[in-house]
């Protein structure tokens, strides 16, 4: 058996490093786009903010969606290629106008629409992050993340955007220990 995998934790650590380094578009250095970048097990923003005790305005969460495997029989073995899917959830907060500035920007807000463009541009310039083997981050889709009424109460003025990315993350070569059944 041959195992050549990019570990999910290595992928997440390199992605977090890249996201933490994005400069704020209007504030002077060393101000960064995100005040907090962290991992969470799902896209429930209000729950994540509560669990991680996040009170900052500009927040980014990295969420694992899962892995997909494509398997090809090759002689007496199977080659299994893995693709990892993850979400980048970005949030901003504005207490006025129902969070309008948190979505589209304002005098003291970047806004999640601008945030997602900055993230896409940054990862587009360096899709392999720190030259990770296998890594080639590719955006697949993005959308505003609607917060339910009870979530809005827990996180007033929050607006969020979620970007999905996929990357190849390795392969396995699995030898057959028993002969394949004869075809009839």
Please supply descriptive tags for the structure shown above:
single chain; 184 residues; alpha+beta; STM4215-like; six-stranded mixed sheet; 5 helices; 24% helix; elongated
CATH topology (level 3) name: STM4215-like
Distance between the termini: 29 Å
Count of the domains: 1
Provide the low-confidence segments as ranges. none
CATH class: Alpha Beta
Outline type:
elongated
CATH architecture: 2-Layer Sandwich
Query: How many strands, what sense, and barrel or not for the largest sheet?
Result: 6 strands, mixed
Q: Roughly how much helix do the residues carry, as a percent range?
A: 10-25%
CATH superfamily: Phage tail protein-like
**Radius of gyration computed on alpha carbons:** 20 Å
Q: How would you characterize this protein structure?
A:
- This protein has 184 residues and is an alpha+beta fold.
- It has a single domain, classed as 2-Layer Sandwich (STM4215-like), CATH 3.30.2000.10.
- The chain is built from five helices and six strands; from the N terminus they run βαβαββααβαβ.
- It has helices spanning 8-20, 45-51, 100-104, 112-125, 149-154, and strands at 2-5, 36-40, 59-74, 77-93, 138-145, 158-175.
- Strands 1, 2, 3, 4, 5 and 6 form a six-stranded mixed beta sheet that branches.
- It starts with a strand and ends in a 9-residue tail after the last strand.
- The mean pLDDT is 88.
């Amino acid at each position: 058996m041959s195992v050549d995998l990019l570990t999910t934790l290595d992928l997440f650590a390199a992605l977090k490093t890249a996201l933490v380094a994005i400069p704020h578009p209007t504030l002077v250095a060393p101000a960064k786009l995100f005040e907090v970048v962290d991992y969470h097990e799902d896209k429930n923003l209000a729950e994540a903010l509560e669990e991680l005790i996040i009170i900052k305005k500009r927040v980014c969460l990295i969420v694992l969606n899962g892995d997909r495997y494509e398997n090809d029989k090759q002689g007496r073995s199977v080659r299994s290629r893995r693709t990892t899917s993850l979400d980048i959830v970005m949030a901003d907060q504005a207490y006025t106008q129902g969070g309008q500035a948190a979505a589209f920007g304002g005098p003291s807000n970047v806004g999640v629409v601008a945030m997602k463009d900055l993230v896409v541009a940054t990862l587009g310039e360096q899709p392999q992050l720190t030259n990770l083997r296998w890594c080639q981050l590719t955006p697949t889709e993005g959308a505003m993340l609607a917060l339910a009424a009870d979530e809005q109460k827990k996180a007033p003025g929050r607006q969020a955007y979620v970007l999905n990315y996929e990357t190849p993350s390795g392969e396995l070569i699995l030898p057959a220990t028993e002969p394949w059944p004869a075809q009839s």
